[in-house]
Amino acid sequence: MTSEKNKVSVRQKEIVAQYLQELDKHLTDLKNGKAEKIFQINDLAKLLFIHPKHLSNTIQEVLGKSPCDIYEARLIEISKELLLTTNKPISHIAQTLTFDPSNFTKFFKRYSGTTPKQFRELNLKTELLTK
Prior knowledge:
Layout: H1 2-31, H2 41-48, H3 52-63, H4 67-85, H5 90-96, H6 101-112, H7 116-130
C-alpha cells in the first residue's frame, strides 16, 4: 500500500511540474505579446489532458496554494520586471498582460502594497541613490 501511495505522490509532482512549465511558457508568451488572452485553469488542464478539478486539487495538495494564487504571484513578478526594465507606459504593460489599466492598478496594489507608478518611482529613486 505504501508503494501505491508513493506512485500517487510521484504522479502528483509530475502534474505540478507540467503545470508550472506550461504556466511559465504561457506567461512568457503573454509578456512577449504572443498570447492574446490569459489562460484559465481549464485551458491548462486541457494542455495536460486532465480534468480541471483534478489539476486544481493536485496543485493545492502538493504546493499548498491554489492555481490562481500561483498565477497571480507570477503575474506580479512579470509586472514588476516590466515596470523596472522598460520605459513602457503602465497602461501598455497592463494591456500586454491583458488587463484594463485601472484593474491592473488595483490588482498590483492588492499584491504589492503600492500602485505600479509608485513601485516604479520608488525603485528608480533607490537605483539612483545606489549609483
